[in-house]
Amino acid sequence: NSSMETFGDKGWLSQLSLAEQDANNVTFAKRMKDQGEMISFIKRIYEDNKISGYLIINLKSSKLFSQIIPEGSTNNEAVRIIQDSKGETLFSIGENNKDQVNSNTYFITRLTSTSTQWNYVYAVPQKQIFGKLYWIRTMTFVVSAVTMLIGMLIIFQVNRITFRPIERLIK
């Protein structure tokens, strides 16, 4: 018998109203438990087109999202955010004020999962993407400037040598 009185974890009961509003029959809810922050997966179970129960799976946030940063990753400035379908942040790495990630300084990629309706946001600093391009641009400018300077010196010298006999005749 699985009555509510014998069930130890009743913290997800407040999330059932959200589960009943969700058209996908699946709801994800972020909540706190004794073991820390949890993501609860709530799925309605139907029998004869009526809700006969719920399947609830609690996943520890730290374990669920532990693979987001691969070991040896050098991309420490990137911002990674996972939001539920309502826009509540489930997980984030980087940039303390993640609501203000500026699209002028970051390239932002956003993907919405069709199964969970979660938003996956990945923001990489533009300087990290364009760093080598900026270096190439600067080096091209420097090489062009040096080449023009050398060319001007050669032209000046050639003109001086060419017109020296005419200057002698004038004097």
Give Rg in angstroms: 32 Å
Q: Spans with pLDDT under 50 lasting ≥5 residues?
A: none
Average pLDDT works out at 77
- Tell me the structural class: alpha+beta
Q: How would you sum up the global shape?
A: rod-shaped
Strand order of the largest sheet: 5-4-7-6
SSE series: HEEEHEEEEH
Fraction in helix: 25-40%
Largest sheet: 4 strands, antiparallel
Distance between the termini: 121 Å
Helix tally equals 3
Descriptive report:
- This protein is of the alpha+beta class and 171 residues long.
- The chain has three helices and seven strands; from the N terminus they run H-E-E-E-H-E-E-E-E-H.
- Strand 1 and strand 2 form a beta hairpin.
- It is rod-shaped.
- The chain starts with 15 loop residues before the first helix and ends with a helix.
